Amino acid sequence: MKKLLLAFLLFISIKSLITAQNVVTIIIDGARYTETFGDPSRTNIPYMNELSHQGTYIDNFYNDGYTYTSRAVPALWCGNWTNVTDTTYNGSSTQYTEMPSIFEYFEKQKNPGDYKNVYVLKYINSLWLQSFHQDYGQSYWPTTFSQGDNDEDVLETTLQIMNGFHPQFLWVYLADVDHAGHSGNWNEYVIAIKIADSIVNEIWSAIQNDPFYADNTTMMVTNDHGRHTTDFSGHGCSCEGCRHIMFLALGPQVKQNYISTQQRIIPDFAVTAASILDVDMEYATGEIMSEIFTTSAIENTLNKKFYYNQGKIYFNIEKTSAVKIEMFDITGKKIDVIFNGQLNSGKNNIQINTSEYNGIYILNLQTNTYTKPIKVIL
Ligand SMILES: [Zn+2]
Ligand SMILES: [Zn+2]
Predict the structure, then answer these.
(1) Cα–Cα distance for residue pair 242/30, rounded to 1 Å
(2) Among the CATH numbers 2.60.260.20, 3.40.50.2300, 2.60.40.3080, 2.40.30.20, which is that of 305-377?
């Protein structure tokens, strides 16, 4: 029986290896669009301008909620605008998000291992926390490296971590552009953007030069908010300057040399990153920005959404297909056929009579084009 269990677990891990992709996200705090991709000369972002030919940028990416960091960064994490709650943690006052973050979804659903789910930023005395959500929460938070004084230090930490641990999901937060903007010194602000631009380039080069990451990694870059249209030293209102932000993505599944004009918003960021990790952000309101992906990537990744929540199995199928959902116990023994029949394309859901089961089960979804197992607790 033990052999059978091993064989079955091996089968699952091979399946997820095939679809697994690495994702590196970079947040440049408070760069206004008019100084990044909104500037036709791209004076401050020569590297990202060059990189954009290998990837996609969105010309209509917006902060659609609060244009300040303490709410926009949690929205970037959580794939929706989440309330935050004051708390005291390790002796410091801080806040945690009410909704689960992408880190938690990834950790719980993929169990990726030590140092595979990593958040890097400069040293901050009282870090903002992810959620204590009943389904996710603290045991699924990322490994956080909060060290150094500036964006260059964050780059150094990032490169060491990539080299040493090869995280599958890496979130890099660069704070200096916003800080320089608030100083009111235009030169400092522009220099900080140029440094962030070169850091994005360094991280992309590191990805390309590491066999673990090369050709298997998507990088996504955005901002939490911009700055006032008429006064770059501040932000926080709903003016165009505060709302309009950049979005750049590169990777094997991302369209090359493509500019998308479809309007997109902050909650879409994490949900799109999660789709590449094959993670489902069940409580998020954001949408997958499918227009940035190549057609084959969409077929391979987006249509494989398959998850269980509160008595129902949800899944998308691309074409009308024969669908079979079988249930196995943890030893790999088939115990039930949940569904066997023809289903139409699009979103489908099927009810499970949960009162009949108690424990951990494997559900295996089989369509004409793919097979996918998931683990559920009933
Ligand atoms: Zn900010
Ligand atoms: Zn404003």
Answers:
(1) 8
(2) 2.60.40.3080
